[in-house]
């Protein structure tokens, strides 16, 4: 038995509760790809809060505390302004709200690119202060040395190649990558470089489908697709996109619910009840017992 943090939904407070440690591990994720194939695809979604993690955790193999929280939670124009402190705060919340999934935390822009030493300082802080299982960082060949440096020092790394949102200014936008032969070759080279460097898995985002198939078949580590191919070893989506929290739906997203409409309708009914003095009723107020 080991003490983990579970959410008391009656009070919305996180309280330490003894629970058996059933969490998946990074080696268990790696082993899902055997002899170049993954029998059952890996499931990954983003999570940013303890309650969200608690709801998603039973259905996922991995929860990613993505720097997409900059746009999803904070309304920022891109992921670039996200700080290490923001990632740590949300990462710790997701770890507290989960017990089964491998929790990974994104390394934000500017926290790892300067040198392997800078990356280790940032990643070790993330690991120590959140309790997560590993970190994710963007970049291919250019980051191979850093991935090796971290991996050799006990920090599991998930790589991120293809469309890398932190490099959106250099890429010129969020369009799919790999349309030219040169870029096609570069993405495959990036995949092989990060796998050889020691990444335990990689996210492959926004690439032409034939590239995704080639990458998945050419590396021994799990390839998690987003806007890539069903042939990948697993899939990831931003949970809010999948749940229908936003009007805009990227091409690679399948919307499974329309939570935005549900929330809007609930808020409208609440507002009407308040304005008509239909809330609170005697069921929601405190009165002396007779």
From TrEMBL:
Record-linked InterPro entries: Pantoate_hydroxy_MeTrfase (IPR003700), Pyrv/PenolPyrv_kinase-like_dom (IPR015813), Pyrv_kinase-like_dom_sf (IPR040442)
Q: What SUPFAM superfamilies does the record point to?
A: Phosphoenolpyruvate/pyruvate domain (SSF51621)
Gene3D superfamilies per the UniProt record, alphabetical: Phosphoenolpyruvate-binding domains
The UniProt catalytic activity note for this protein reads: (6R)-5,10-methylene-5,6,7,8-tetrahydrofolate + 3-methyl-2-oxobutanoate + H2O = 2-dehydropantoate + (6S)-5,6,7,8-tetrahydrofolate
- Oxidoreductase in keyword set: no
- Kindly state which keywords UniProt assigns to this record, in alphabetical order: Cytoplasm, Magnesium, Metal-binding, Pantothenate biosynthesis, Transferase
Q: In which pathway does it act?
A: Cofactor biosynthesis; (R)-pantothenate biosynthesis; (R)-pantoate from 3-methyl-2-oxobutanoate: step 1/2
Q: Name the positions where 3-methyl-2-oxobutanoate binds.
A: 67-68, 106, 136
Q: What class of enzyme is it?
A: transferase
> What's its job?
Catalyzes the reversible reaction in which hydroxymethyl group from 5,10-methylenetetrahydrofolate is transferred onto alpha-ketoisovalerate to form ketopantoate.
This protein is called 3-methyl-2-oxobutanoate hydroxymethyltransferase
**Taxonomically, what lineage is the organism?**
Bacteria, Pseudomonadati, Pseudomonadota, Alphaproteobacteria, Sphingomonadales
From the UniProt record, report the name of the gene that encodes this protein. panB
